[in-house]
Amino acid sequence: MTAPSTPGTGPGRRWIERWEPEDEAFWRAGGERVARRNLVFSILSEHIGFSVWTVWSVLVLFMGPEYGLTPADKFFLVSMATLVGAVARVPYTFAVAVFGGRNWTVVSAGVLLVPTAVAFAVMEPGTSYTTFLLCAMLAGVGGGNFASSMTNINAFFPLRRKGWALGLNAGGGNIGVPVMQLVGLAVIGAGGGPRVLLGLYLPLIVLAAVLAALRMDNLAALRNDTGAAQDAVRDPHTWIMSFLYIGTFGSFIGYSFAFGLVLQTQFGRTPLQAAYVTFVGPLLGSLVRPLGGALADRYGGARITLWNYAGMAAATGLVVLASVRESLALFTAAFIALFVLSGLGNGSTYKMIPGIFQRKAVAAGLAGEAAVAYGRRLSGASMGLIGAVGALGGLGINLAFRQSFQTTGTGTGAFLAFLAFYGLCTVVTWAVYLRRRPVPATGGRAPAEPVAALRHAEV
Questions:
Q1: Which of 88, 286, 424, 453 could pair with 175 in a Cys bridge, judged by C-beta atoms 3.0 to 4.6 Å apart?
Q2: Domain 16-453 architecture
Q3: Mean pLDDT computed over every residue of the chain
Q4: How many Å apart are CA 200 and CA 117, to the nearest integer?
């Protein structure tokens, strides 16, 4: 058994032609080492991408009265960054098949220089709101890195390790949110301005791109398989899981953008007071994401997701109570609990995706490498689409806050809507993936109908 690394022929391009992670001998002979190396540098690039994507959640804390912006203006700024980040995830998913995972990681990391440098140039009082809005939208490209990174890393790991690997990859990326907020806190505390914060990230972006170029690989198996995305779009599982991911990741990214603004607007916190608290929720939510994937590996993603949504509904109920009673301590504690649960749910829902398509293949009569190839192909393509739709949940959260504060002056109305949504997600998870039903014959085909006939408690 030779090491599973075959250099490509083009200058500076590294392609692995043979990749069989489900083969234990192949995995032990070097496959695991290669997969872990690619995972490390994928995490770094995705981490910087998340930081750039969410930089405006910190920049708005710097924007005092001299900028002439209302709370509604600020919520709209971060909403537009969320929107572009969600939309960017669709082409970023396809880019892995067109250019290769390593090649696209280099490009997507380098592109982050554009929104960071532009924001650095215009970040000062007197700049028009339209200019700030365009800058926030440019920063949205950082949200696309998640989709290409997850699609790429999904192909490197065997099914039995996907929950852990995808959780670690996504969690390492997600942690870019609290790191950006912590750096922002340090800059504010030291009396620095927004340009100091932006300037710190310019060399880090270059470093991430260079390391990806030097240390990552492309998988030939992913090349030119753009048709997988079309198959994923037609599969009902993609859209059901997209709906569930709105509740987990949409909550995580939406609350990450909005938490500091809510503390400032509803509870009168200063920028520094808000910054002291804002990073805690995203930090904990990022750290527990791999745990959510590991729990899903052991107990089944659907089971973990079900109980997680029940917990999110309960935490949201406490947030509503704290909002009505104007209890800052209870509000902060319950909001941080929401972050933790959203992180766990992110890990468990993403573990479900490869398991669902693998079980569909088995139910259709496929076995061995054919079943593995079917599951890997469809799950990789669907992950980007699911990630894109899920990120739109963050847009919905920020727009809901904007409307709630404009109408009533508090975020209570928005939280009531979120509570109802988490209840609906709980019902959908149980009805589609846990309720026992007979499995009909499929005649050897991969089922094209919704998952009504399949039970996926183990996924």
A1: 286
A2: Up-down Bundle (1.20)
A3: 87
A4: 11
